[in-house]
Amino acid sequence: MNYYFKPTLIIALWATSFVILSLPTPSLQQQSSSFEQSSSNRTSSFSSFDQNGSSFERWSSNQSSSSSFNQTTTFQRSSGGVRLQNALTALQAWKKTFISDPFGFTSNWVGSNVCSYQGVFCAPAPDNANVITVAGIDLNHATISGSLPDKLDLLPDLALLHLSSNKFSGNIPSFFSRCKLLFELDLSNNLFRGPFPSVFLNLPSLKFLDIRYNQFEGVIPPQLFNLKLDALFLNNNKFSSPLPSTIRNSPASVLVVANNNLKGCFPSEIAKMGGTLEEVILMNIGLKGCLPTSIGGLNKATVFDVSFNDLTGTLPESMGRMQSLEQLNVANNKFYGEIPTSICNLPKLENFTYANNYITKEPIQCLMIMDKNDENNCHFWLSRLVTKIFYRVYNAPQVPVPPRRAPPPPSKNYAPYVPVPPRRPPPPPPAPKYAPPHV
Ligand SMILES: *[C@@H]1O[C@H](CO)[C@@H](O)[C@H](O)[C@H]1NC(C)=O
Ligand SMILES: *[C@@H]1O[C@H](CO)[C@@H](O)[C@H](O)[C@H]1NC(C)=O
Ligand SMILES: *[C@@H]1O[C@H](CO)[C@@H](O)[C@H](O)[C@H]1NC(C)=O
Ligand SMILES: *[C@@H]1O[C@H](CO)[C@@H](O)[C@H](O)[C@H]1NC(C)=O
Ligand SMILES: *[C@@H]1O[C@H](CO)[C@@H](O)[C@H](O)[C@H]1NC(C)=O
After folding, report:
1. Fewest Cβ atoms nearer than 10 Å: which of 11, 132, 135, 171?
2. 0.90 exceeded by the pTM?
């Protein structure tokens, strides 16, 4: 049976891309505002990203300078410096590559005060707080066509580069190798192609790497998972190598690889990421094999999505140890057998989708999950009969469901990036197929 061309896939892909493309990437404005809020607290150290993207904050907060991130301030202090002159050379060279800038995003990129350019953010240099340098560039959603010239190597202090949703193409220049402070790199939704840029493997500060929605192809380098990344988005490219066993080394909390053509077996080493992994989306990447028992070790995972693959076997009982799980999607695979009760008993599980498999039995606990899709499996006649009897006995007007919790706040500043579909309103009671028989 061919699962891959069902309309549900098209809708899912469309919905996914819509969610991703329509949501704004975290803006530097928000980040700088959160920086200003906390700039009085110089001692705070950041062990993880906060909702507003503490990445920039973390970088800036380690400075000895007492000036907060404030464009006006930096402007006043900036006249002269060699670094800003270099930045001027770099940015003007870059602007020359712009074939089109339909919204005039860079129309104020004139004159020598680069700190006043739209999307360019200055801050005291980490190695010398008396020197102002270009620390961040945010051209998200500018739809600029252009390329990345080698002259950008005159921006070695970049901590943050956001170029999402533009039309940049061409080579990834080697200038990145000079960006020792770069820890947020977002090239998503551009026209880059070719092999994975190995220059990214040598960025010692990188924590957030997003190259989704490009045309990168070939091997996902095993060294990528040795980096200390907190979030990695590779989805919607043309990568074609199996996930390497080094995946176990990754400290990432968010891993999205969906919609590539990787093939290969389910990467059982992923279970070793239990200490950090919170959201993993391996949808539609051609995975074969079974889910290993060790998968139960992912006890921090809130989102686990392996839908639209070729996985088979039964769902391991051990998944009942994934106590943080809220969204579980194993739909459109070849799983068979019985759904373990332990899964449906998971305390936070809100949405369990296992449509289009060969599941033969679902325990009654599974019927209580608010958002559940069990369509197109082997006949669940027994569980449906049980439900009918249940109705008769209790004359229940609707399937009893636990009260719905308020949706959790986004866990990360980049949570909107993760293709977790938006929540639907609760379905109208009672669901027709479990309706009580006519009296
Ligand atoms: C994030 O930003 C919003 C508004 O910009 C603010 O209300 C909130 O307190 C910030 N959160 C943190 C953790 O800085
Ligand atoms: C300063 O940082 C410390 C450590 O992170 C934190 O406990 C404290 O609440 C912060 N104070 C302010 C005023 O933000
Ligand atoms: C702050 O800078 C010092 C020295 O440059 C470095 O050792 C330390 O790891 C940095 N801390 C953070 C949180 O980046
Ligand atoms: C930025 O700095 C200028 C000049 O020092 C000051 O007038 C302004 O209030 C500052 N803005 C913020 C948001 O701190
Ligand atoms: C539940 O998950 C499925 C698959 O990921 C998704 O299509 C559906 O919209 C989700 N439902 C809710 C209410 O989030």
Report:
1. 11
2. no
- Residues 6 or more apart whose CB falls under 8 angstroms from that of 48 comprise 54, 230, 253
All domains of the chain in start order, with CATH:
26-218 (3.80.10.10), 235-439 (3.80.10.10)
Query: Residue 129's pLDDT is what?
Result: 84
Q: How far is the CA of 114 from the centre of ligand 4 (A)?
A: 18
Which residue from 62, 206, 207, 230 has its CB within 8 A of the most atoms of ligand 3, so it is best to mutate? Answer: 62
Atom of ligand 1 nearest to the CA of 38: 14
Ligand 4: lining residues by beta carbon, under 6 Å: 36, 70, 72-73
How high does pLDDT run on average in the chain? 75
* Distance between CA atoms of residues 248 and 271, nearest Å: 7
pLDDT digits over 250-269, tens only? 999 999 999 999 989 999 99
**Residues 341/347/351/353 CA torsion (nearest 10 deg):** -20
Q: Under the phi-then-psi rule, with left for phi > 0, alpha for psi from -120 to 50, and beta for the rest, what region is 218?
A: left
Closest-CA residue to 242 (of 264, 216, 266): 264
Q: How confident is the model at residue 387 (pLDDT cuts 50, 70, 90)?
A: low
The pLDDT value recorded for residue 225 is: 97
Give the whole-angstrom CA distance, residue 400 versus residue 20: 34
Q: How is residue 169 annotated by DSSP?
A: E
State pLDDT tens for residues 395-408.
444 433 333 333 33
Q: Could you tell me the two tokens for 139?
A: 């051209």
Mean pLDDT for 10-34 is 32
| Band of residue 377 on the pLDDT scale cut at 50, 70, 90 | confident
Q: How far is the CA of 73 from the centre of ligand 4 (A)?
A: 6
CA 283 to chain centre: 13
Distance CA(214)–CA(187), nearest Å, equals 8
Q: Which residue has the tokens 């051990």?
A: 318
* ∠ Cα 383 385 390 (to 5°): 95
Read off the DSSP letter of residue 418. Answer: S
How much helix, strand and coil, in percent to the nearest 5, is found in the chain? 30, 20, 55
327-329 and 208-210 strand pairing = unpaired
Q: How confident is the model at residue 371, as a pLDDT?
A: 84
Residue 44 C-alpha to ligand 2 middle, in angstroms? 6
